[in-house]
Amino acid sequence: MSVIVDLNKVMSRLKFTVNDLVKTSGASARQIRYWSDKGLLNPDSDKRGARYFSFEELQKAVRMNELLETGIYTLKGAHQKVLAELEERCTRCN
Prior knowledge:
The chain has 94 residues and is mainly alpha-helical.
């Protein structure tokens, strides 16, 4: 259990660029920026305005793109499902 906790601490400190999310999620850079601009992803920004995403945001982007690619979900629906899944995961962890 302590290894998982330590791994979670490490992962929570990592920061990913838009390009990292593109490579991992399969979404385009334009999609990632749009989702960020709409508040569906919440990156940190540096002084130049470059966006840096947490591991959780990376996971959200991957899952949202998976759901969108099914053709069943709208962007809003995919985002709501991802948030519900994250909440469920957090509930199970506690």
